[in-house]
Specification:
Elements (H helix, E strand, L loop, with lengths): L10 E10 L8 E10 L5 E2 L17 E4 L2 E2 L3 H4 L3 E4 L5 E3 L5 E4 L15 E4 L7
Antiparallel strand pairs: 1-2, 3-5, 4-8, 6-9, 7-8
Length: 127
Amino acid sequence: VLNSNPLSTPMLFSAQLVAQEIGGTPSLTSSVTLTLEVVDERPLFSQTSYALSLPENTAVNSSLLNVSATDRAIAYTGVVTYSLSSNPILSIDASTGEVRLVSALDRETLSSYIISVTAANQNSPPD
């Protein structure tokens, strides 16, 4: 089933299953209605933004922060994984959300960084 609804919009699917005895007299039938609600939500971060102020001499490979997101449907979709927008000085552990410094800071080159972290479950479409 293809559906163009955005994620986080519940989708209802309904079908009626009918069983009919063929050749019997009288002909017997039985039916049941099946309704399935599909809710595929993106994981939600515990905070809407994170801010850090670091000294320029912060050691390379330092752990800077952990981002955290939860998926309400985690029992059905598996684990949340994290990814980071292209950034030459930071990395993120895809499983834990730990952000690390992977290159030296140089305030004269760039005084601030804005990064985007994405949290996805197994059912999240690629961006």
